[in-house]
Amino acid sequence: MLLEAGSFGFSADWAVVQQRLAAQGYRSIAYDRAGLGLSDPGPAPRDGLAIAEDLERLLAVIGEPGPYVLVGHSMAGLHLHLFAGRNRAKVAGAVLVDAISPEGAAHRTVRRYAVHYGRLSRLAARAAGAGLLKPLSRWGDSIGLPAEAAAHKRWAFAHGPHNRAAADEVRQWEAAAAQGRALGPLDPDRPVAVVTAGPVRGFVWQKTLQAAPAQASRAGRIENVAGANHANLLGHRYADAIVSAIEHVCLALTKSR
Fold first, then answer.
1. pTM
2. What strands, in cross-sheet order, belong to the sheet with 2-4?
3. Chain centroid to CA 161: how far?
4. Per-residue pLDDT tens for 155-185?
5. Tens-digit pLDDT profile for residues 44-92
6. Is residue 35 part of a domain?
7. Residue 177 Cα distances to 6, 77, 84, 146, 154, angstroms
8. Is residue 21 included in any domain, yes or no?
9. 185: CATH
């Protein structure tokens, strides 16, 4: 499994999911993108192409040739899509965790949200750089992580360079979405599972956009976890839904052999 965190996220976000995958006998990789967590910064712009190229080099260096099951949360849906489009022979399937797709990013409401979110991201980066978030770092873990990962998450919440790198990625939202769309849809012969969070009522349009990649797959699965929110879907209370989605993809791959 190749786990890609969402905006402002990094490897610590996946601690619970990785623990549960390991208990089921699955191997997984989570990493910190350039400038996030403990990784060194990367060259600008931090768009989807830069992130995909970094990941390709990382996998080559550590000797992981694939095939991969890609698992992406939130904005990582854009990065996952681009990586899959560039590496079709190496991608066996995908799990989208409350994620945005390149096609969904073209929706006018999503585009308005992206502009607003970009402004908030830049404000967060400036606040962190000025040390204003340190008194609030106790609330930095909104996922519900194990102690070590939670401490790492709280550190990153108030860390200036991490927040600046994350804001740089969000600034490239539209570019990453366009790069993904240019490569076309995910392979319909690959299994795709979608897990979403929160109530359906009032958000049918959003759930429909998120479900589209699974509906296009010949081995698709869609699950909404109504009690979860965008962040704690990855934590102790709800991570089993993600593990179940990954198991669906792996089972579909086994049946197709």
1. 0.96
2. 29-30, 2-4, 68-73, 91-97, 192-197, 220-225
3. 20
4. 999 999 999 999 999 999 999 999 999 999 9
5. 999 999 999 999 999 999 999 999 999 999 999 999 999 999 999 999 9
6. yes
7. 14, 9, 13, 33, 29
8. yes
9. 3.40.50.1820
Q: Which helix (H) or strand (E) holds 140?
A: none
Dihedrals φ, ψ of 244, to 5°?
A: -60, -40
Place of tokens 């992206």: 114
Task: Choose among 76, 6, 72, 1: nearest CA to 231.
Answer: 6
The answer to whether residue 72 is domain-embedded is: yes
The answer to whether position 90 is within a domain reads: yes
Domain containing 21: what range? 2-107+175-256
DSSP letter for 143, please.
Answer: S
Separation CA 257–CA 252 (nearest Å): 9
C-alpha distances out from residue 120 to 60, 123, 140, 163, 208, Å: 35, 5, 16, 11, 26
The answer to whether the CB of 110 falls within 8 A of the CB of 78 is no
Euclidean distance between CA atoms 37 and 122, whole angstroms? 17
DSSP state, 217? Answer: S
| Coil vs helix vs strand at 101 | coil
Token pair 């897990």 in the structure block, residue:
195
In which element (H, E) is residue 80 found? helix 76-86
| Rg value, the chain, Cα | 17
Secondary structure of 109-129 in the HEC alphabet?
Answer: HHHHHHHHHHHHHHHHHHHHH
| Count of structural domains within the chain | 1
If you ran DSSP here, which 8-state letter would residue 44 be given?
Answer: S
Signed CA dihedral, 176, 182, 184, 190: sign only: negative
